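Slide 14.
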Amino acid sequence: MHRKAYVTDLDGTLLNSEQKLSAYTVRVLTEAMEQGMIISFATARGFISADSVVADISWKYPLILYNGALIYDSMTHKVITGYWLDSIISGEIIDIGREFELTPFHFLLDAADGERVLYEAPIRTGDVEFYKSRMNDVRFREVKRLECPADHRTLVITYIGRLEELAPLHQKVLDRFGSEVHIHFMKDIYIKDHYFLEFSHPDANKSQGLKLWAQHMGLATEDIVVFGDHLNDLGLFAAAGTSVAVENAHEELKAVAHRITASNNENGVAVFLAETMNKGEMTGE
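Slide 15: predicted structure.
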């Protein structure tokens, strides 16, 4: 019997609209892992940010962070592997942003594998709102002028703004670097009328991240069930054997999903896993 695994997105999928886990979700996932199910998550968040919202669950298995840029061991708090954006390209993207009077949040690993987020003093609405939601996050370091430190590795360069502000920057970076960077450009689910424009290594996406995770776990991707809600989960869905969209998911994601479960506010992931346990379809471990 093949080992099966279950990998879920967090925001909009496992987390409810208040960015929290319900008591039911905590109970079901905890019981499932105690019974031998392999469960993890793939998120745009880093470990510290993710841990702030899902720490009520003891995650036994490696995590897929920063939209696939980092595979992280939550038990030992060690970096396993990942994909880093070239430092020269990182610096050039920051310089291009300045041409449009935009500065990003720069997510990196330092020389000791510590998570860092470097940023200039936030002024624009989107930047302020994002920073306010992370005010107690120890990764964040304000700098006078943002640059790419030589001994750091870029995970993600994130710009936050309105569509019309970010579109010219998106086009110029795309024209300049093409396939040398991976680009996420999607509407934010928390900040009204704002978008996230993110640049990372070409393989730093949930599709490649899931494959890297599966390789580390000794699993075949066709034996992985994934859950998601937004367009950055399309790669996750394409790489896995079974894809499950929550009811509140983007219509494009629901159109390619193998299954639809209840919404994030109705514990959709936990409901699916509870049904799986009841049917005895858990894992071949």
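Speaker note: The CA atoms of residues 21 and 205 lie 25 Å apart.
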